[in-house]
């Protein structure tokens, strides 16, 4: 058991060593930290989408071309990034298609890539029911104003709900703690809360990159081994195997 594991470790090290020789000479070709839109101090796993692919982990490409918040694409949906907490690996994001009204322009459910992200534990699922008949309001929860986009009255209810008698249901993460004892979401203020976005935690371990940078190195992604490596002026260095194993 133990010796098998050791052999596996050895094999992986050999594979990495051979593939790394291809990527030698890349040191210094990625920016250690960079600013994107109104957010500064960004680094691996993030990269500007124009930067070489090896500068970031796949799925963490940022669009910094516009003023204000940077954007990221997750599962084919564009999100504005409102803040990044690198220490705790938390991103606050909001759907780009909710930038003008909390009633989304794209009638698709919010889904994140669970290989890379997880919802922060302080969030739950809620459903926006769009295009409901007025009779829906028997619940007395009050409708949300969707502007003049012709979808009809919209309601926000907790949990994953199908459209039922309404035209469409769109699932959105919503902070826990805004439901009353009967389990209804208080409509007052919920529009602003939706506009403030939600927190996701990224799973790719970035802590080691701080260590890597401290020793004068730079984290890079090796697309052959699909692992993060620490590149330094003296050449490539293996991150500790514990780190390699935690990579998705
Ligand atoms: C590094 O940063 C500079 C200045 O912000 C930018 O012009 C350049 O494109 C960046 N390079 C990479 C590889 O991100
Ligand atoms: C992403 O969206 C584009 C255009 O909106 C579509 O062509 C493509 O099939 C979508 N990809 C996935 C994986 O849903
Ligand atoms: C960036 O701008 C957006 C919108 O203008 C704002 O909501 C967000 O708080 C800003 N982020 C930072 C880190 O300043
Ligand atoms: C990052 O998140 C943690 C935990 O939520 C919080 O205590 C800390 O103040 C945050 N740091 C920044 C810079 O926002
Ligand atoms: C909202 O996003 C769309 C598409 O990205 C953009 O065309 C529009 O100008 C944005 N509106 C605001 C108020 O930022
Ligand atoms: C919403 O439900 C889905 C499917 O049950 C789950 O994977 C996801 O984590 C939930 N979202 C939140 C914010 O709890
Ligand atoms: C629901 O959708 C149908 C077909 O698009 C539309 O005719 C109807 O007005 C919508 N109902 C509401 C309440 O918006
Ligand atoms: C919870 O909220 C709903 C909708 O606003 C309301 O009808 C109901 O009476 C509330 N229940 C309690 C226990 O406050
Ligand atoms: C969102 O998910 C719910 C539950 O799975 C489903 O009933 C609904 O049709 C989905 N909405 C859209 C726009 O696909
Ligand atoms: C809804 O929230 C508002 C503001 O937080 C509060 O004043 C009001 O009493 C709440 N309504 C109910 C029914 O809980
Ligand atoms: C790996 O990256 C190099 C340089 O960026 C590129 O030329 C090569 O096609 C990539 N290989 C794979 C398997 O994606
Ligand atoms: C990477 O991080 C893990 C835990 O976060 C730590 O145990 C390990 O020693 C680190 N490896 C390196 C090379 O810094």
TrEMBL record:
Cellular component per GO, a single term: membrane
InterPro entries reported in the protein's UniProt record: WAK_assoc_C (IPR032872), WAK_GUB (IPR025287)
GO molecular function, one term: polysaccharide binding
Signal sequence annotation: 1-21
UniProt subcellular location: Membrane
UniProt key word Thylakoid: no
Major site of localization recorded for this protein: membrane
Reaction(s) catalysed (UniProt annotation): L-threonyl-[protein] + ATP = O-phospho-L-threonyl-[protein] + ADP + H(+); L-seryl-[protein] + ATP = O-phospho-L-seryl-[protein] + ADP + H(+)
Record membrane topology: Single-pass membrane protein
A Pfam family recorded for this sequence: WAK_assoc
EC number assigned by the record: 2.7.11.1
Start and end residues of each Wall-associated receptor kinase galacturonan-binding domain: 30-95
First-tier enzyme category under EC: transferase
Keywords, alphabetical: Glycoprotein, Signal
Domain Wall-associated receptor kinase C-terminal: 164-231
Name used for this protein in its record: non-specific serine/threonine protein kinase
């Amino acid at each position: 058991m133990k010796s098998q594991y050791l052999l596996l470790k050895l094999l992986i090290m050999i594979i990495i060593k051979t593939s790394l020789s291809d990527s030698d000479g890349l040191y210094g070709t990625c920016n250690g930290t960079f600013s994107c839109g109104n957010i500064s101090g960004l680094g691996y796993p993030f990269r500007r989408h124009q930067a070489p692919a090896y500068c970031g982990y796949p799925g963490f490409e940022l669009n910094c071309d516009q003023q204000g918040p940077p954007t990221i694409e997750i599962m084919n949906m564009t999100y504005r990034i409102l803040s990044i907490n690198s220490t705790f690996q938390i991103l606050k994001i909001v759907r780009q298609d909710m930038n003008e009204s909390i009633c989304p322009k794209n009638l698709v459910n919010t889904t994140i890539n669970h290989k890379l992200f997880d919802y922060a534990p302080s969030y739950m699922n809620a459903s926006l029911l769009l295009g409901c008949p007025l009779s829906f309001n028997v619940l007395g929860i009050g409708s949300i104003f969707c502007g003049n986009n012709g979808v009809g009255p919209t309601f926000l209810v907790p949990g994953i709900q199908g459209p039922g008698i309404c035209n469409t249901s769109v699932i959105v993460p919503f902070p826990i703690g805004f439901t009353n004892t009967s389990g209804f979401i208080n409509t007052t203020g919920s529009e602003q809360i939706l506009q403030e976005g939600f927190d996701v935690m990224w799973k790719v371990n970035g802590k080691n990159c701080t260590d890597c940078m401290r020793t004068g190195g730079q984290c890079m992604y090796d697309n052959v081994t699909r692992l993060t490596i620490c590149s330094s002026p003296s050449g490539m260095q293996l991150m500790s195997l514990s780190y390699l194993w935690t990579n998705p």
